């Protein structure tokens, strides 16, 4: 049995790619957003609050990112009973609101992005757009 395991880590450059792509998608949609990016340990790597976004969405965007990074799944799709348990077990730090997407590279969860301030569907579309750009960079051989 091995005593170590390989690990991929999200860098500030990868974080910058995600934030820029999310802002571009939000601007194209005309919906100012709060955008949070966390690493695999739920440490905040980057955050942007666009002009006109809701102040209380700072927390929800961050919690969406943390939930996606922790569970490895998009928020909003977690079974209701499991979502309630996660919220209770984490003192409300995890959420099942739409808009959180995990960052997965080569089968490893390296973090999550959370978007909040629009409708759940808008938040999710913007998060997915950012992850698509990020994945394209990975596929082109750019390190994140």
From TrEMBL:
It holds the Pfam family HbpS-like. SUPFAM superfamilies: GlcG-like. It comes from the Bacteria. PANTHER family: PROTEIN GLCG, SLR1406 PROTEIN. This is Uncharacterized protein GlcG (DUF336 family). It comes from Neorhizobium alkalisoli.
């Amino acid at each position: 049995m091995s005593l170590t395991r390989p690990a991929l880590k999200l860098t500030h450059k990868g974080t910058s790619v995600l934030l820029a792509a999310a802002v571009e998608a939000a601007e194209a949609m005309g919906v100012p957003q709060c955008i949070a990016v966390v690493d695999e340990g739920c440490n905040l790597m980057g955050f942007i609050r666009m002009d006109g976004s809701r102040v209380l969405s700072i927390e929800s965007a961050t919690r969406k990112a943390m939930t996606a990074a922790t569970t490895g799944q998009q928020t909003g799709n977690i079974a209701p009973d499991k979502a309630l348990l996660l919220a209770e077990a984490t003192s409300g730090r995890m959420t099942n609101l739409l808009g959180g997407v995990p960052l997965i590279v080569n089968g490893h969860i390296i973090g999550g992005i959370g978007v909040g301030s629009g409708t759940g569907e808008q938040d999710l579309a913007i998060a997915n757009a950012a992850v698509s750009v990020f994945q394209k960079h990975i596929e082109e051989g750019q390190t994140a």
